[in-house]
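writing this on my phone so excuse typos. first protein, seq and then structure
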Amino acid sequence: QLQQDLQQQPQQEMSVQQKAADDNEAKFVKVVLADTEDVWTKLFSNMGKTYTKPTLVLFRDATTSGCGNASSSSGPFHCPVDHDVYIDLSFAQELKEKFNASGDFAMAYVVAHEVGHHVQYLLGITQKMERIQQQVSETEYNKYSVRLELQADFYAGVWAHYDQQMKNVID
């Protein structure tokens, strides 16, 4: 169920080095996604549930999703409409240059965070949030939205814990 489309905007020609970096980043992201699938499949099974794997969409600069258009300024995201995880490969470079977050774990954590949003959808949390949004003020909903992001962070940590237990991947 892995969508391996790398959508690129034609207006910018990439150098050979950029293409190679994107290829390496794409391979890494796919490995991380596979690891998240292993962990969440096991955890859902332990709860008596079935984990439905998200589709991965890799892009650079801009893309269109079931949730509308997105640019690199929106960063990686999960779209609950099409259940896809969208990863802008330029974000890996931004992590290193803008946020000084080098190393593989930073990007792996980003992927796991977006998968965490997918887990929220599968557990019905996203749908509950949509109902809450209809009932409270924007200010009040923003508090819930922050909690949703923190929970996705927590789920990324759950993934890291169980991935380490299962595969001993963290150096």
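second protein below, same order as before
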Amino acid sequence: RYVQEMDAYERYTYNKKFDVGTLSLRTQLEQRNNISQPNANGSSVRYRQQVKFVYPFVNTKWSAVASEEVFVNLNTVNWGPVSGFDQNRAFIGAGYDFTKEFRTEVGYMNQAVYRNLNSMFIDNQLYYIRIMGEHETKDTFGAGARVDLYILGKDTNNLNTYVIDETHTLY
């Protein structure tokens, strides 16, 4: 079933460069609100933790990328999300830097989703592309604009196309 959401989130990302690559730890707390069902009650709160490593290839714009992200619902609401484990995403692929501000990653993602309302476990095998861009403007308040990520996937089992995440951030 399709649910349209209007979400707010807080995010903290820690990046640590090593001689062999960059480790990123991203923590995100989401407040998810269903706006497509008139009887939907309350905000779902979901915690996400991602660990990612990017290994750049010498003298190229290419890199190897691996990440793991766990999602946990912190409460139960009447329109779907149930408290507890929600999903896990494991990714392995290649990254390409078009410019310093614009990058893409393509590869394979395994998305394991648990839907507690029907005691259903879904294991999606996805071809995956993520496009990231960032442009910061310098004004007196240090504000900028950022298009953070789009994630598209194609299920290898039944070849359905999914929009897994779509995030636009202005700050």
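The chain is about 0% helix and 70% strand. thats all i got for now
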